[in-house]
Design brief:
This protein is of the alpha+beta class. It has 7 helices and 14 strands.
Length: 276
């Protein structure tokens, strides 16, 4: 085995190509992962974890990469990140108002995606199409654009009365993606939610919500040569060594012949990457 890189690991960077191009950050290295498909790849966790925000050593990672003090104090770790409809910036109680201004008080996109089936989601406008790739979506289509995270959360709550808002990661990693008519599903949702949407426009203002028209769905293809027979999830905390043939990459998952690992979950872990 040749050691290719080692150091603090972060979530994979992606670029929308055909297929998606992935790079794995390890310390100062950006390892191109597509070139390792079909090869024997080893990931070895060295036992060290560093907070991805402050850099301090920690025995346990919280919220995919943070030490406990940062988890408790940072706005990006607040519960309103998971539930954007509970954003409390306008109440003056944001943990970090400057961070909220930069990330929450910005344009957001409400979208439909086809990952493990049709789902509704939100993301900052600057995170399109990265968010779709991170979720393993094979299709995505924007529905609306709003001015703040709170507004995007309110619309997501409205839409998820009629469509799922979660991805089943096991189904996402199975072979056999089904193409769906996202444009038709978008039209159906807008029709079902028309009265509620008009109330939202009254609540937030006419210029706050823009329903998007004339946009074609985005098709996303991933670097996958095969799928594992069993969707078993590797866990660095239980087994620090992962080794096998790299079959594919989808979302933030590396798929080996013996199982899969969610790279984003282990951000902050010190890992050594090797390949034969």
């Amino acid at each position: 085995m040749d050691v290719l890189a080692h150091g603090l690991m972060r979530k994979m960077h992606s670029r929308l190509e055909a297929p998606v191009a992935y790079r794995l950050p390890l310390a100062d290295s950006q390892m191109p992962m597509n070139t390792l498909l079909g090869k024997t790849v080893r990931l070895r966790y060295t036992g060290q974890i560093q907070c991805v925000h402050c850099g301090r050593n920690t025995n346990k990672s919280f919220n995919s990469g943070y030490c406990y003090p940062c988890f408790q104090s940072l706005a990006q770790c607040d519960s309103c990140i998971i539930h954007p409809e509970k954003c409390h910036y306008d109440q003056g109680t944001c943990r970090e108002p400057a961070w909220g201004e930069e990330f929450c008080m910005q344009d957001h996109i409400i979208y439909l995606a086809n990952s493990s089936g049709i789902k509704v989601g939100i993301t900052r406008a600057t995170q399109v199409p990265t968010r779709w790739v991170d979720q393993g979506a094979v299709q995505a289509l924007p529905i609306a654009r709003v001015r703040t995270r709170l507004q995007s959360g309110a619309l997501e709550v409205m839409f998820k009365q009629h469509v799922a808002d979660k991805t089943n990661w096991r189904d996402m990693l199975r072979e056999g993606d089904q193409v769906v008519d996202l444009a038709a599903e978008k039209a159906r949702l807008l029709d079902l939610c028309n009265d509620d949407l008009q109330e939202m426009i009254q609540r937030f203002g006419f210029h706050a919500i823009s329903v998007l028209h004339g946009i074609d769905p985005v098709d996303i293809r991933y670097p996958v040569q095969g799928y594992p027979e069993k969707i078993a999830s590797y866990n660095f905390d239980k087994d620090p060594l992962i080794e096998g043939t790299l079959l594919g990459i989808k979302g933030q998952y590396l798929m080996f012949d013996g199982g899969v690992i969610n790279i984003r979950r282990y951000a902050g872990y010190h890992v050594e990457l090797s390949s034969s």
